[in-house]
Amino acid sequence: MGKLTKVLTFVDDSWEVLPDQIPQADVEHAKKPLSIITSIGSFGIGKSFLYNVLLGAIEKGESFFEDETELIEVFPLETSVRAETQGIDMFNGFLPTPRADKDLVLSLWDTEGLSNPNQPRHHDISIFRLSAYFSQVLIYNVKERISSESMDKIQVFLEEIRTGGNTQTNTFQTLIIVVRDANQQFGYCWEGGEAYLNHIKSQGKPGKQTDVFFRELNDKFRSVLVFMMPPPNQKVKSKRTKITFMRDIEDQLFRESLRIFTQKLLHEIVQPGIVDGEVFRVCDLKPQLKMFAKKFQYREQPTSFTLANAIKE
Fold first, then answer.
1. What is the pLDDT of residues 235-272, one digit of tens each?
2. Domain range list for the chain
3. What is the average pLDDT score of the chain?
4. Fewest CB atoms within 10 A around its CB: which of 68, 149, 223, 226?
5. Separation between Cα atoms, residue 45 and residue 180, nearest integer Å
6. Helix, strand or coil, per DSSP, at residue 169
7. What is the pLDDT of residues 190-237, one digit of tens each?
8. pTM for the whole structure
9. Residue 29 in 3-state DSSP?
10. 95, 126, 68: which is closest to 301 by C-alpha?
């Protein structure tokens, strides 16, 4: 099982890109299309736990969800108010997709938790910007419901694109909003997420804030999906007991929701990255990060405008 590599770090109020930390792709994978999946959300919400499950599902398939499967902690779990991930980490290896019809390689990126009281607000916005621009699938974890507070980072991001003189026409690929500890009013999993999203959209009057927000969101992302994740059993939720085997996730509904989430994500949603109309390959990642490192070597905070221009160049 691989380890984690630091891709971007935040030092002295500025972002530092670390392209030389990226693992060298082997000959078999170098020319294959690449899809980067990035997870963001508040610290302690369980995004690293979900990533460990996703990693296991990539490596073992459906058998990963059997009782005796051991859960290996690659992405560190946050057990206190101190965020374990600092900056943006990637799994130190390129993973083949389980889809038989796709010659596609995956890269899993995990981000520092948002809403950290020890970081300024613009720090969260930068994490969202960087995640959106680098990723083909952006997983945004929110607590219990989609609220104006949880959507604040996306709102700022969309406003920057709209008002910052950004001429970029590229559309980001897929945004998945995972509602953690969701209630059962609209049901669970993908069907519940679709019902919940339709309900929220129906509450927004034409031209008003909610209506404009979701129209802009759908304009900038090719696909916007919602997944309703039920609350886990107390053993998982308390984080005081180490979850060693899949059987330790005693709540069958929660375990099944994990299986359903990873199944659709890996077999239907992930697609090759596209940059400037060209398929993004494994061998392109390190050169692109080096270009970003050069562009932002002296910038305190990359903006949506400067990121877009860096991608175009």
1. 444 555 567 788 888 788 998 999 999 999 999 999 88
2. 4-163+233-312
3. 79
4. 68
5. 8
6. coil
7. 999 999 999 988 887 666 677 778 888 888 898 999 999 998 864 444
8. 0.87
9. helix
10. 126
Cβ 206 vs Cβ 168: under 8 Å: no
Q: State the CB neighbour count (10 A cutoff) for residue 170.
A: 14
* Neighbour-count burial for 26-39, b at 16+ CB within 10 Å, e otherwise: eeebeebbbbbbbb
- What is the reported pLDDT for 165? 52
Question: Strand 34-41 and strand 137-143: pairing?
Answer: parallel
The tokens for 158 are 């969309």
Q: Give bridge partners of residue 8 from the DSSP assignment.
A: 17, 88
| DSSP per position, 215-244 | HHHHHHEEEEEEEEPPPPPHHHHH--S---
Looking at domain 4-163+233-312, does it have CATH number 3.30.1050.10? no
| CA pair distance 208, 106, nearest whole angstrom | 38
| Distance, CA of 92 to CA of 81 (rounded, Å) | 26
For 109, the token pair is 């990126």
Quote the CA–CA distance of 189 and 198 in Å, as a whole number: 14
